[in-house]
Design goal:
single chain; 3 helices; elongated
Length: 86
Amino acid sequence: MRFMHNMLVAVLLAAVPATVAIAADKAHGAAEVKKDIANHRAMAEAHLNAAKCFESGKPEKECHEQLRKDCKGLAIGKYCGMQHRH
């Protein structure tokens, strides 16, 4: 009986994060979702343009400056929400 009780508690605790995630998703309206999608696309485009800049042989400083301009207001941090190891 104790085993069943522990199993029930474990199942209920595992279900809590999923329930919270579903509730949060429903609270996030369609307009917010569309805005999030647009922001992610803009960030992706900015990073793609930065990669192309680096590929072209332009100086790192120039490419980073353009990335900062392209990402202004989109993400946290000076590199558009992406941190590199170098």
